Each structure stands twice: as C-alpha cells, then as structure tokens.
Amino acid sequence: MHQKQASIYQEFGLSFDYFGRTSSLQNHELTKHFFERLAANGYIEERPIRQVYSLKDERFLPDRYVIGACPKCGYEAARGDQCENCTSVLDPVDLLAPRSAVSGSTELEVRTTKHLFFRLDALANEVRTWVESHEKWSRLTRSIAMKWLNEGLNERCITRDLQWGVSVPRDGFEEKVFYVWFDAPIGYVGATKEYSDQAPDSRDWKDWWLNASDVTYTQFMAKDNVPFHTVFFPAMILGTREPWTMATQIKSFNWLTYYGGKFSTSQKRGIFLDDALELFDADYWRYFLLANSPETDDASFTWELFATMLNKDLVGNFGNFVNRTLKLTVAQFGDRVPDGGSPSELEEKLKEDCQRVLAAYRHQFVNLEFRKVIQALRELWSLGNVYLDRRAPWNLVKTNRTEAAMVLRTAINLIKCFAIAAEPIIPFSSARVFDALNLAAGERREWLKDEFDLYSYQPGRQFTVPEPLFRRIEKVEMEELQLRFSGR
Fold first, then answer.
1. What residues make up the domain containing 302?
2. Is residue 466 part of a domain?
3. Cα gap 5→63, rounded to integer Å
4. pLDDT tens-place string over residues 34-62
C-alpha cells in the first residue's frame, strides 16, 4: 500500500523530498525516545482497565477494533476511540450495540487488563496557551481544538493489544504496542530522519526539528484528525521538555461527500484516486478539488458539477484563450511573436488589473485559502478573454495590422503569465504551454514578481500551437459516470 500510494501521488503531480513510513526503524526509535522522556517527567502511568474481549476472536480488542453506535450523536459506525462523525473522543465500552471489527461478532465481554496512560490532563493548561497563541488558524481548526479543551482533557491510554506496531519498552508489556496516535505523529519527525540518514553529510534532520527558529511548519488534514494535531501531539511534545518544532499553521478541511453521502469502497459508491486517473488527467482533479475545497462546510462531489466547472473554466476560459490566440497569430503573422505598435491605455489598464489579481492570488496562497485562490485564477484568465473580445484582433487585422500584432503579442504574453500562475494548480497543462512557448527552464520556474511585466516574452520568439489543453465532458459521458460510480 505504501508503494501504491506513493505511485498515485506521483501521478497526481505531488512531490515529496522523502515519502516515509511509520514502520521505519527511525520512527520506532523516536517513539521510544518520546515515551521515555514523558515517563521520566511523570506523564506516564500504569493502571488496570476494563477492556472489551471478543470470545470468538479469543483476544482483547483495541478501541479501533470495536465498532458500534456513538452514544453522543447516534452515528452507527463509530470506532471505539473516536466518532468520525461528531469527532467526540470515545471509550469502547461506551459504544451502543458494539461488535468486533475483526469478525463482526457481538459476543463481547469486558475484562481487566493493564495499560499505560498519558497524563494529558496534567498538560491541559500548557496546550491551551499554545492553541490560543495561534490566532491565524482557521475557525474550523480552532473550534475543534477548543471543543476538546473546554470539555476537559483526561488521561489517554497509549498502549494496545496488537502485534503490529511500535513495541513498548517496559517489562510486562511485551504483548502490547503503542497506540497509533502516539507513534503516527512522531512519524513526521521519523520520515525527516529517514531522509536525513540517506545523506547525513549534507542534511541534518535536527535543523528542522530541534531549536529551529527559522522553520515554518504547516500541516494539512481532515477535521477528524484535528484534535490529535492541536491537542494530543502538542501535549506529547510539551511533555518531553525538549525544544521540538511545533506546527505553525494547521489547515483543516470538512468532508468531501459523494452526492451528499459517504464515499464507500465496499459499496463501490464514489470515485477514488486510482480510478480517477484512468478517467481524466490529474489536472482536472487538482483544479476541481481545490476549487471545491471543503474549507468552511462540507462539499459535495457530483459529476454534474465536475463537468460544468471544468468545461467552463478549463476548456472555455483558459484552454480557449490559449488556443484561439496562438491559432490566430499563426494564421496572420506566422509562428513567431509579432512586434506591432506601442500599447495603449487599454493595455495599461489590463496590466494594472492583472497585477491586482496576482497580488490577491499570492496573498490567498500564503493564507491557504484555496477556494479564493481558484477564484483569483479564474478572474485572471477572464481578464485575458475579455481583453481579446474587446480588442477583436480578428477584425483589427483587416484595418490595422500593426495594432493587431500588438494585441496578439499582448495576448501571448498573457498566456505565459497565466501558465506560470496556474502551474501550482495544473502543472501538467502549464508544462504543455511552456513547451509550446519554448520557455527555458529558468523562465518556467520564474514566479511572478510584485511588479508585473506584461511584455517579458519578446517579439521574434518562436512558438507552436499545442493540441487543445483540455477536452469537453459531454452530457452522455457524465451520465454514464454517474451511473457507474453510484454503487447500484
């Protein structure tokens, strides 16, 4: 699964300096280090607990192996550690109508066994101070963190009756491993150490993780993971009394639903990443998912919305601008950027508008406001189409070829600008534009500066007309996809 995930991410254009895993030797060592530091500082306690035992499976069931109805919201598939619907922290014995996730058996009883607990309650005030110091976190992130804190933090069991995981370095716990939410966040540090260990002479993982005052550390996650990254893991770090780097920004998301319901692999309901790439290029998905990021509320995926948005934005806005500009230029002036006359007030106004939108675009990227990022990109593309329609070089060429040449030179420069701006969102399509314009490597990676240069792509540069960047999604195809992934 690790290899499969890495391959899919790569096909989506996501890059990793290093794609680590929590089963690495480095993560095992770091997890035990964190545990020993917390134990030395008095934040670990051993105590007997009553735990669910499955008679059919002949084993104690870790909390995530017990499924039932949430006692707080009624969600019928809540796990024993947390309800993913309402994000409430649970205990397996609290679940209504519990059953084994291993066998489905309801032949369960509660027995006594010993486990280790993390004194989360003893660090509550420090965690609250840390959370309250991050005023720029989104409302969703802060509200979930404060919900946990305001309800009161309790000791948390950090060992489980499993064979797979990080072993517990304490006598009497040979048959147990650490709770996944204890070792998994440490895996961020562990993955960096894996990366560092590959070239220890050129990089040191401690530069990022210990006494690192110049590090900006951003986390992205769905809302059910927020409590563990805003409360549980920070408490672990604080409890070590060591100078570990803590998150600067935590960007959380609500749910993406499928026609208002849950995606389900078992029911074959919804579209998943491997199937998605077989249907459409990665850029279609990158654009759509960012444009519909569930940043403030849950967002629903529908094939109708998918087709409408991509046909309008990618095909009709960006793709159409590139295609008609370059085709008309070749037809009237050949495959080199025409020179033409001097820009008019219209071009100066266009430059000002582009500079304004690009400034907003950069600002929204910094603030991780992805829906607004896409809105700004869409507005930028629209400026080009409105300009081209207003100037109408297909008509202007009949009366004033010099001015028509200037208009097309301006439009081709806009193509370069649009592709560079869009590259973080739709990198594969932007690369095709870069190839068509014969841009050098430095030109392709050049980010748009504060002072926008509308004419950096000089007259005489040779280009080609690429195949259409995007294809329309027709109604009949949309209807077929809707039926295919409906789970019926």
1. 282-445
2. no
3. 26
4. 999 999 999 999 999 888 999 999 888 88
